[in-house]
Input
Amino acid sequence: MMSDAWIATLAVVLLLLLVAVRTPIFVALAFSGIAGLIGMKGLPGVDLVPLALTAQLQNYALVSAPLYILLGEVLAVSGLGRDLFGAAYRWFNRVPAGLGASAIGSSTVFGAMSGVSISSVAVIGRMAVPEMLSRGYRPAFASGTVAASGALAMLIPPSLMFILYSSVTGVSIAQLFAGGVVPGLLLAAIMIVYVVVRAKTAPANAPVTDERFTWRERFVALGKISPALILILLVLGSIYTGFATPTEAAAVGALAAFGVTGGIYRKLGWDNLKAIFVATAHVTTSVLVIVGAAFVFTEMLVVARVPDAVSGFVVGLEVSPYLVIAAIMVVLVLLGCLVDAASLLLVVTPILVPAIEGLGFDPLWFGVLLVVNLEMAVITPPVGLNLYTMKSVVPELDLADIFRGVLPYLAIEAGMLALVTAVPELATWLPGLIA
Output
């Protein structure tokens, strides 16, 4: 008879093989998890599957996930994305690569409303990339800018990744949201600096425009996006003033989004309503199916006592704890090339967090670090969802150009990983103020 540790190892190998042959990730997770449970417990091991599903999927924190997804889908049909991009361009048009900087700025604001990176890429990319291409921007430069900045939605609240991390660890969603603000805004600023410097040093990437706007036009454009700013304040303000929990704030935000889209933009016809609810159901189902399958796989690892073994091994290492963190980040980057961000988060979090706590690190800080790492996953070939979303909304783009365009941003994300590791206060300072 094989030991539970060997069976768990074989289950992990089976998972990687299934992923390698392009098996849907929820099938790969569920199948390898169930196979491992049967190997350790026999057929009675299958009884643990419904227990794992019901224990985790009834987590109250997960209720906010479909509500934030609904909020993003409502805003996607509103036309607000067009106004965001237009307002950003009126303020950034005088700088080199003004359209690129505008795309990053509008992606940042839209991410602060939707929390889902592919929604941000789809909404902003549909307008920004064709506009950049028509102005002579190189395809790789234009597409990379939007695909990478769309990932900011994972870090800037309300973030679906933080909701999933909270559901596994129990760390406060409000604290995680606050922890993502400073790194998210800093990352957006670095991306803007990059496109400006890149356009200045290599003007062929982004030709200069002679278009000019008056101060009045700029402030009028800001007025058009005031519903977006009010919506952000409503959602985050209701959380941090104690008026609502993050889940309740999601419901408030979704309701307000319907009001903005119907009352201000007049875009809530039957066709749009159908599109909103179909898209919300599709994304929510996809996420929750992966969540359920990941919990089955995690249950198998728990039965094999893998988290305890990993924690004991890591704590027993006679090396710097920061060297351990660096090694974990490298492994996660490699895994992010093969597995989508949500699945990776759900599988590794129960294994790594006990070890992180054993080393004396704050799980809130590690959650922010993990999400920065996962931002790299969504823009890393061959699995990066943002890359294929970019291709789907601007079909004339060559996928090779999109891949090439995100490479500099992978370096920027890696730099942010190092910065948050070296200066943990970037993630913990704001949560400490509102605790």
